[in-house]
Amino acid sequence: MSSGSTLSIRWTRAASTAGSSLVPVWRSDRCRTRVGTGEAGYTSYGGGRVDRDLRRPLPRCTGGRRSAQAAPGGAADDRGAGCARPLAAPLRLAQGLRHRRLRRRHLRSRLHPRRPRVRPLAQGLARSLAVRDADALAASCRLSVSGLGRQTRDPSSVLAHLAERVSERTPSDRYGGGELVERLERRVAELLGKNAALFFPTGTMAQQIALRIWADRARLSTVAFHARCHLERHEHKGYEELHGLRGLLLGAPDRLLTLDDLEAIAEPVAALLLELPQRELGGRLPEWDELVAQTEWARRRDVALHLDGARLWLCPPYYGRGLDEIAALFDTVYVSLYKDLGAPGGCLLAGPADVIDEARVWRIRHGGRVFSVWPYVLAAERGLDEVLPRMVEYFGRARELAAGLAALDDLDVVPDPPQTPFLHLYLRRNGEKLREAALDIAEERGVWLGERFAVTPLPAVHMLELPIGASTLELPVAEIVALFGELLERSA
Amino acid sequence: MSSGSTLSIRWTRAASTAGSSLVPVWRSDRCRTRVGTGEAGYTSYGGGRVDRDLRRPLPRCTGGRRSAQAAPGGAADDRGAGCARPLAAPLRLAQGLRHRRLRRRHLRSRLHPRRPRVRPLAQGLARSLAVRDADALAASCRLSVSGLGRQTRDPSSVLAHLAERVSERTPSDRYGGGELVERLERRVAELLGKNAALFFPTGTMAQQIALRIWADRARLSTVAFHARCHLERHEHKGYEELHGLRGLLLGAPDRLLTLDDLEAIAEPVAALLLELPQRELGGRLPEWDELVAQTEWARRRDVALHLDGARLWLCPPYYGRGLDEIAALFDTVYVSLYKDLGAPGGCLLAGPADVIDEARVWRIRHGGRVFSVWPYVLAAERGLDEVLPRMVEYFGRARELAAGLAALDDLDVVPDPPQTPFLHLYLRRNGEKLREAALDIAEERGVWLGERFAVTPLPAVHMLELPIGASTLELPVAEIVALFGELLERSA
What we know:
The structure is a homodimer. By secondary structure, chain A is of the alpha/beta class. The first copy, chain A, has 3 domains: 1-36 and 48-60, no CATH class; 89-155 and 391-490, Aspartate Aminotransferase, domain 1, CATH 3.90.1150; 173-371, Type I PLP-dependent aspartate aminotransferase-like (Major domain) (Aspartate Aminotransferase, domain 2), CATH 3.40.640.10. Chain A is built from 21 helices and 15 strands. In chain A, the strands form 4 sheets. Chain A has a 7-stranded mixed sheet, sandwiched between helices. A 4-stranded antiparallel sheet of chain A has the order 11-12-15-14, covered by helices on one side. A two-stranded antiparallel ribbon of chain A has the order 1-2. In chain A, helix 9 crosses helix 16 and helix 19 (431-445) packs across helix 21. Chains A and B meet through strand 2, helix 1, helix 5, helix 7 and helix 8 of A and strand 2, helix 1, helix 5, helix 7 and helix 8 of B.
């Protein structure tokens, strides 16, 4: 609270359709601004924002208060934290180094590999107590085993690529219209063999809308999907809260859906959502015949089929079939532009023209018709031109790499062999030790392995997600395998 | 339908929670893809997309059909249409000209003004039959009386400005977190004197969420706003369809709200939304005392106050009060980043930290947590640095310009005098003639006046919206007045 104002709490009777109840109302004597009625706060997303804010003086005349329950930034989203903090001297030095110099240093380190140093206790403690700035460390690395290396995300590098793709006469898109965005929509519709496609800012929005449309058409609110579906796990149940849909969870969390799971459904269902490849299961794919059998089950029951194809781009090599042939099994298809293709955001929903026209209205309702989206569109076109044609190559590399990694002790590749250029690595190590070791390697060798080692049902095992892409191919397979060997050794 | 496939329609009994009914199902014998059940299509947004698509061969294996009811692109969004068409030779020439040369030509034309030529009938007919490419014409103009000239929107020019604002080390934001976006959120929260602020892709999303939160806290679904509120007019009733809110419409469409309107409310209300300035009324503002009286009415009734401040940036000069002082009257405030500030999109919702934390969850539900939004953020920072400090200057120019324009016959400035750097011009002319004349002027003089002459309750009168900004100030007031004189003469 700013100086000179006091905060008072009084109880007020809140009128409500469901009767009335006493609720506390906070008031500042200075601003006379009602600021809340004491509901619980929610986990705050976005790296440490709350923490940092609390250290800063509150702005003048806010009349507000902080929810005591607000948690610091969620672990899944904390890469952006603290970029403004002063960097440690060695790191600042490393950041000044250019690609080739880092590469030289890296090659030298391979010839004379440094073994994990035994650090004095005090130093080790100091290091583990200080939160290392992983984002700055990632920025200092010029090599990354992850296919979508940080470099492809950096604003400066994206801007340079976008500038190559516009002329002085390229007009901005505007409220969803304009040649720029329509060109991308036509191109992706054609790639997927659908009549029409529509840009959305997020898959969360696109998929809720697709399911809502199918539910409205079936006059039925039940939609069915796997227990690890993005809608169930990562969207705070928007489908239920905003659209009143009921999610019927199918199968079991740790395996793919089967035809048996579908045949066990004993109630009417408006739509079935399948995810290809299934991200949380290591990019696994059902065999083609199984997939066809599942979609035929839906056809027989007049259940609409929606494809969560966030990473559909990765599937053709395994099936030996085109994107359109896979998409033809489904009524509507969502594909992401920022996963794999590397755009800063955005996605497309493709399907029959009348469904897409209806989705256009829902996009407005959701607040998804952004004034202009050309930065996403231009970057996505680059992805379609430069990344998509390399998928077969990435897939081959994923298989080679998996073979090498699977030979390491205490490391499982899932699935083995990979079905897409996307792997999950399960490492029998402590998660915090893995992260520290990975950051050490980033600092010393200039190669980014990742930092998110997720918990698994086995407390002794942690999981790293590894998409294979252009950055991965800059490093020889043997080198990546050696780095993971070192990671395991350092975190033992 | 692609060759080799046929389309059959059969009737199927659709299971439904509300009984069952016969619905037609279209099937392609080739794809076996259900593509729709014959609901009416919706107006398609986005300039002529449907028209153009219909001329193109359908992609392979779609199994789809076009909704017969799909209308061609909405009139409000057709600027982007047909940019790929070959330009007429004179226009192509004009596009090659640089700013100074156009200016010279323009000044020359003022010395020897060309009167409207009497065109041979055939030529005039041909011209009116051909749809002129307004977007390409706008692109060829290097001067614009509209404050947010097309030039500020062009991807090439925006990219150049953004590149100045990033270093090689600037990291991308990620899922709503990261220093880049948090820096903007802190800055705008401080400008508005609020505890916290959160980025949203659109105001549609931000405002629905703000009202939903206030409604939940009041345990009451009624929210009140003016009949011309954006939520009521331009969002396909998302607030009702997604959040189950009831909109209580206040006052009358063609005047500002008054305290009397509020005192006439005879039912409990969770939140009151006020719009400052009110865009559809020419950027009108209530007098300060009236505004304070309205907010005090809400305080007395424990009604939460939300400010639709899409163009709040324009208000301080009239009130002689800071943004924070105006915002302090409200609990939550939405401000746009693309209106006036000139970013390609995006907005912020500011308010108490616990409300913003709750809004963060709703942003995920709505599908508004875009993977990264740094292009909007960087452009908005530029707007705050370079546009916001000039508002007093723009306001002064708006008043000078209004005085000049009001002297023209058959033209009304609304409001007169202007209360913000934003005007509505009511011209007693046929809308199509105005548009043709404005495009003629664009073609011949290289100055863009606009092309959207909206209908008004008087069929003989059409309205042009005129935001005053940097582009406006590049032209002397007398010159702009002369151009509107010419517009009136040419369209008489």
